[in-house]
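STRUCTURE:
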């Protein structure tokens, strides 16, 4: 579509779809509700694990790491999408930072789920040697390395080795906003 030019100002084309506003409001509300649920539930998870002494073990620490990563996903992915439904653009610096932080959180989330699976596998396969194999110190080192490796991996696009790509058409088609 082309915009009309009148006296040096751009006049956007008139939208004739009567349901567009309904779809945009529904999309905005859905994203806002999902964002709030992600933040609320992961915050509660962190608080419960920290306050419950029986949950302060290797599995609990992995769950805290997962909740922090998911909290980051909720903040760095959902809120910018909500903002984009209102303003329709983000600055390049904001896109890079959101791309970096959300990518780090996504990768840490997946790695932590893998670590939880390995933790449970060791508990099942080696029940008598579990506490000698899986220690809190090894857990903290593994969690730290997971976050560090993810940060290093996703710092490369910030250093102009690769890039974070944002395709407006793909996002619009997925989110039904346009």
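SEQUENCE:
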């Amino acid at each position: 579509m082309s915009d009309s030019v009148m006296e040096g100002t751009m006049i956007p084309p008139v939208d004739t779809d009567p349901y567009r506003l309904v779809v945009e409001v529904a999309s905005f509300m859905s994203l806002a509700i999902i964002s709030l649920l992600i933040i609320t539930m992961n915050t509660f998870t962190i608080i419960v694990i920290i306050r419950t002494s029986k949950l302060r073990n290797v599995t609990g620490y992995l769950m805290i790491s997962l909740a922090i990563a998911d909290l980051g996903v909720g903040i760095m992915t959902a809120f910018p999408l909500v903002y984009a439904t209102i303003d329709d653009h983000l600055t390049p610096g904001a896109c890079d930072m959101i791309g970096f932080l959300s990518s780090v959180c996504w990768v840490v989330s997946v790695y932590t789920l893998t670590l939880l699976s390995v933790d449970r596998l060791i508990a099942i396969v080696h029940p008598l040697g579990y506490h000698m194999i899986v220690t809190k110190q090894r857990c903290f080192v593994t969690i730290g390395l997971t976050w560090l490796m993810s940060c290093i991996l996703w710092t490369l696009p910030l250093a102009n080795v690769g890039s974070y790509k944002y395709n407006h058409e793909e996002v619009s088609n997925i989110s039904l906003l346009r």
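REMARK: Residues 18-175 form a domain with the Rhopdopsin 7-helix transmembrane proteins fold (CATH 1.20.1070.10).
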